[in-house]
Fold this protein.
Amino acid sequence: MKLIKYLGRDGRETVGILSERQGIVPLRFETGHVKSLADLLELDEILPTIDFLRDDNNAVSLDAVKLLPPIDQQEVWAAGVTYKRSKAARMEESEAAASCYDRVYVSPRPELFLKATPHRVVGHGGAIRIRSDSCWNVPEPELTLVMNSRMRLVGMTVGNDVSSRDIEGENPLYLPQAKVYNESCSLGPCICLIESMPPREEIQIRLRVVRGKETVYQGSTAISEMARTFEDLIHWLGRDNSFPCGVMLMTGTGIVPDREFTMMSGDHVEIDIDGIGTLRNSVVQG
């Protein structure tokens, strides 16, 4: 089951389910205690509630609506150095901090940081931004966990943790500036409920960057390459921390372009994750 957020015919934010046969089937939130996507994700029995709320008579085509990022008021956090390839890349970009990245890869405590608040997030079809004061910018395709306020893993989505590698490489204390700014995060196109996801060891992630008509970068990785489990990351994120609206957690990247590659304004980035779908974004210069 896939949940999607979009602008309805009346211009209001609407939540629906993706149906191969019907397109988007909206959910009726006008009555009852479920008023938002976050409310729905709080329920113990999500699927029966969806069956009750679905409005099959008002299904719309996916091509006829503007998709929104599948987020309400949740914070977006991210984990770093969770793949061996990511560890090597971070050590290469910052000689001064190489030992830090090497140690955190094997440390019980993971690297976790606040990536975005909702106003910094764009959805499928939107434009991600590269900083005006950076000359080395990369997409970071990441499987993103969706938790409710009780830190229960309820779904997954596709995430892009856009990063300025030259800024972070100059000094690791610049990480917030390299990672957290307007349109530095994209999520979508939907949330796949956890019951509908394939086994973790079978999930593949694929990245493609298109410039004009040419593919200038592509790569792939697998969740089985992660050095940490989802449960471990969720445990550390929730330690001495609360998320009244729920939280989303990007789980790190195992796809790292070579030093010679940087995103450019006008590029198109595609991230595909098994079980969820493909997140597509254009690139603009800040």
